[in-house]
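Hi everyone, sorry if this is the wrong subforum. Our group has a chain we'd like a structural model of before ordering constructs, and none of us has done structure prediction before. Sequence below.
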Amino acid sequence: MIVVQALEGFFTRFRKEDSLSNMLRNIISEFSCIDKIKNADIAINEVVNSRHYYSHFMERSKKKHILDGQELYDLTHKLRKLLICCVLHFIGFNYPQINEILNKSSSHLL
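Answer:
Right subforum, don't worry. Here is the predicted structure as tokens:
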């Protein structure tokens, strides 16, 4: 939840996106040249439905593709990489530099 909310906040403040789905589509597209994003296979419906389910305490039966457990952990791991890309790009790194930083990192977070 915290990671997807951080991505939403970043895009709301700096990019003015109108929906979470559009924001995710645009950010995934923007960083599609980054190896760790290109290979992440982030399912937008799962992100949106899981975020709405956990944020608004909706009934599970109303939304499909809601993740929990290990799947939710794995999704958070993928979204964290997107957030790191946003921050690095915002502070001035270009796409090849971001790609190199993520590829050479020995952090378990990446």
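For your construct planning: The mean pLDDT is 90. DSSP finds six helices and no strands in the chain.
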